[in-house]
Amino acid sequence: MEDRSPMETARVRSLTREILALPEPERQQLAREVLPLLLTTRAGLEEIDAALRGLSDDELRALVERARQRASDLSEDEVAAIIAEGLRAARAQGRP
């Protein structure tokens, strides 16, 4: 974490422990409600970018295929443009 006070770090650790202790249905509900908000933060976008870079070609193809199936009305070019824009945004937010 970058320049966090000990209290902020302790709070994050405490929240993490609480989340991990939740029953699975509650964790799933929390993920549906909070994850979209967290993913749009700088750290969220950086983690998405890092995760994408860590995928093998086959894993990346499977991810793109899944996205294509969920948004079947989008063309291949549109899917590629959305992915490229997401990566650009993540990298741009990581710059000073």
Describe this structure in words.
This protein is mostly helical and 96 residues long. The chain has two domains: 1-39, no CATH class; 41-96, no CATH class. The protein is built from five helices and no strands. α3 packs across α5. It starts with 5 loop residues before the first helix and ends with a helix. The mean pLDDT is 79.
What features would you highlight for this structure?
mainly alpha; 96 residues; 2 domains; 5 helices; 79% helix
The helix-and-strand class reads mainly alpha
The count of β-strands is 0
Give the SSE string: HHHHH
Strand-residue proportion: under 5%
- Number of domain units: 2
Shape: globular
Separation of the first and last Cα atoms: 16 Å
How would a textbook summarize the main sheet? none
How large, in whole angstroms, is the Cα Rg?
A: 16 Å
Compact summary:
It contains five helices and no strands.
SSE topology:
Blueprint: H1 6-21, H2 24-39, H3 42-53, H4 57-70, H5 76-93
Helix pairs in contact: 3-5
